[in-house]
Amino acid sequence: MSGRRAMVATLATAAWLACLPAAAQQQISVSLQAPEAVRPLLERYVRLLGAESVMLPEADGDRLALVRRSRREISDLLATEGYFNPQIRIDRGAGKDWKVVIEPGARATISEVTLDFEGEIAGAGDDGVRALREGWRLPVGEPFRQAAWDAAKQQLLDTVSAHRYAAAHIVQSRAEVDPDAATARLSLTLDSGPAFYLGELQVEGLEALPEDLVRRYSTLKPGAPYDRDALLAFQSGLQNTPHFASVVVDIDRDPALAAAVPVRVQVAEAKPKTLGFGGGFSTNTGYRVEASYRDVNLLRRGWELGTGLRLEQRRQSLYADVFLPPEGQQRDSFGALIDRSNVEGLKIGSEAVGVARKTVRGDIETQLALRLQRERVQPDGARASEHNTLTANWTWIRRAVDDLLDPRSGNVMEFQVGGGSSIALSDQNFVRLYGRLVHYRPVGERDVLILRAEGGATLAPSRDGIPQDFLFRTGGAQTVRGYAYQSLGVREGSATVGGRYLGVMSAEYVRWFRPDWGAAVFVDAGDATDDRRNFDLRTGYGVGARWRSPAGPLAMDLAWGQQEQKLRLHFSVAIAF
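Request: output the structure for the sequence above.
Response:
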């Protein structure tokens, strides 16, 4: 029994009515008397019940045909929901009012389930087969529905074919219904076929990109058991690179190839070169315009070049980075940067070159970076300085959240350790430690509580000669709201410079009163200093508006700085990873 048969009967009834001459029809209304459990289904799919009025043919023979068709249609439809012995009465009044009375009877329940397995899975051990039987979705005692029976069969097939047994198929399935007893006996035989193991990659569609590029992105190992999730992850990873416009990864499910089935990778290359322009504004660095250029096939080696010029009111930078194709989970890059900034009376000019290696394992990302930089620091009202420094920095980040762009549950943890040595260009030995934790806790159906803490310490006798990137300033959007950007730090002359210690805490509650619009209340506290004895938490609190944009939630916050007794407006993207 299937829902398709009921739908065909519905269409046939509609077509039969539509073909009758208009002059030979009269209008009637049809009411339904049926339990609430089946009423919505009948009203939705039975033609006789779906309209406020029905055009009825004049001839008695045509009317009897309409009644028979409707009875069969209702009976078939109820059977798909497990009602195999219904009582259907169609009362045809002398006037224009008809009444359909339905007693669906007892719903059939599952009285017996027999699952048999053939193929290699049958000899793979009892634990696997036992787990499949225990996971069967339509056990004894459950109501029988055609949709549930179809879904249970598909779920079992998907479970078996997703891992190892790519050619699994259902040999036979049968549902034996006893209408009088209102029971159904289910039987199914599934043949797993042989276990599949991966062979070599077969890549099609490469034209300008190097032949080994896809293989360098691959995490699949020849000889590994077939795993559909692994193939989908590989496909998704390729699709997310800028090299390809489309990617399809699959295998041939021919049992003859099971020992080493080739992995077919069909790609379409994306345009390699793009030029972009943009603009924006933030309360931290002011208005911004920028131009960028990307070439994802630099020197026809599949290298990615990203370069750009960004001009902001308080900061200007010119950069170029080259990312090499990955080797498994690792990816290397190198680049150069020219940067100028003037924030809170501190003018910084720097030029730097560096190399980095990033490793991604699940939701954990690590990066080791070496950087050679020249920095000139000019605080207003104080002595300028200049130094060259070779630094190393290791970063560990774990993003365990439900949504990277708009998290509502989970945690983001980050830890950094880096430094420099006097025997390698630095003015003194120093080690910088930094940690950050952001916790997202859902409240009710929509709201979220966001708790944030960050802290850092640069271990050195003094801050002299240490690059500002290895010291700490805070204040502004996404740090301590209610205070100007990087205004909390060490006073030197009339400027704010970086200190050796940092501590920040924040609590924020976001109420989403519409899917895309929300409001927030928050309190922040933090400080950066050069002496732990002078550490003084500066407090800011306020309210804000939130908008879920395609780039993530945008935030506009109005915050009161308790120590400064000043109100400030902050505008930013509400999440930064």
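Residues 1-24 have pLDDT under 50 and may be disordered.
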